[in-house]
Amino acid sequence: MQNIIEQLRRDTQQLMQQMHDMKDAEKATFRKYLVNGYDMLNLSTEAMDCLVDPLLPRTGLAALVGTSDSGKSTLLRGLAMAVASGSSEYLGFRLSPKHRSALYVATEDDASAVGVLMQRQLEELGTPKEAYHTLDFVFEVDNLISNLDKMLEETPRDLVVVDAFADLYTGPLNENNRVRSFLNQFSQLAVKHSVLIIFLHHTGKRTESLAPSKHNAIGSQGFEAKMRLLMELRPDPERHDLRHLCVVKGNYLSDEYKHDSYVLRFTSGLNFVATGERVPFGALRERLPEQDADGAERLELIRAMRDSGMTLQQIAEELGYRSKTTITNILKRSYEQKSKSICPF
């Protein structure tokens, strides 16, 4: 009987010790999710660590949006080439790659097409081909997240370009939760591998009639919210060889970078060169259509903006109205006129 009691006592003590160890393990697991503010302040520096100073952070998600044929792919390919070749600047900004390595995911071109374009760029740049042995391209996007994870684990990169977002995400662009969930996969990759991932994306219909804005991106609410930096590339209204690089969102940038474009010259060799000039966003906005008898053109523009995911307040701000009431009244009058034309009695 005594032996049984002793055995029970030992078993109870062992069980209690196991429970205690489990609690300690749970506490340790929980603590790894906590980051102390004091420790962060001791680690922080005065300036944000940037790949392209001061625009592009070294880690996270960013995007370049614009209309078709504005040169988005060319600009991002040029950035990847500059990173891989170890250039100290790009478009007039200081470039600081740590690994001198970039990865370009191309969904719209194949290897032969990209090779021809790069060859034309190199003829003008005068850079030897050997400078780009650390620039890799991906043309097959099946299991992209898993494959990117493996590639970044094998070879650290400074930059990953995804051209284009709409070819990878096949869900409704205006369903914010789904867009954010999709982008979260890339955000986790960026943090895990300390790399900057830039998406190429498109702007909505008729946005050339608006000033550059983060709301111009298709599916803007879900898409732009995940980006640390969002830029819009816009052709010059008058000169075909000029483009305007507009910073329309920058979480860590002061306002001086967000109201005037950076004017770039698009060369015959398919390269972008900074002119050093800047132009206010308002000057890039095409003249809005004049109000005709029934306001059809203005109404068409408002509907296109709503289709792109903009709220009534955002539309009002973009068109220069004081509040969304004016937009509401325009839509209301349109509905009343349509109802009257269907049933005039």
Provide keyphrases for this structure:
21% strand; 2 domains; 9-stranded mixed beta sheet; alpha/beta; 4-stranded antiparallel beta sheet; 11 helices; 345 residues; Rossmann fold
Structural class: alpha/beta
CATH architectural type of the largest domain: 3-Layer(aba) Sandwich
General shape: globular
Order of strands across the widest beta sheet? 7-6-8-9-3-10-11-12-13
Query: So what's the CATH class of the largest domain?
Result: Alpha Beta
CATH superfamily of the largest domain: P-loop containing nucleotide triphosphate hydrolases
What is the percent of helical residues?
40-55%
Q: Can you summarize the main beta sheet?
A: 9 strands, mixed
Number of strands: 13
Order of helices and strands: HHEEEHEEEHEHEHHEHEEEEHHH
Mean pLDDT: 86
Distance between the termini: 102 Å
Structure explained in plain terms:
There is one protein chain. With 345 residues, the chain is an alpha/beta fold. It has 2 domains: 50-284, Rossmann fold (3-Layer(aba) Sandwich); 296-337. The protein is 42% helix and 21% strand. It has helices spanning 2-31, 37-43, 72-85, 111-125, 144-154, 165-168, 176-193, 220-225, 296-307, 312-319, 324-342; strands spanning 50-53, 56-57, 60-66, 89-90, 93-95, 102-106, 135-138, 159-163, 196-202, 229-235, 242-250, 260-266, 272-280. Helix 10 crosses helix 11 (324-342).
Question: In summary, what is this structure?
Answer:
By secondary structure, the protein is an alpha/beta fold. The chain has helices at residues 2-31, 37-43, 72-85, 111-125, 144-154, 165-168, 176-193, 220-225, 296-307, 312-319, 324-342, and strands at residues 50-53, 56-57, 60-66, 89-90, 93-95, 102-106, 135-138, 159-163, 196-202, 229-235, 242-250, 260-266, 272-280.
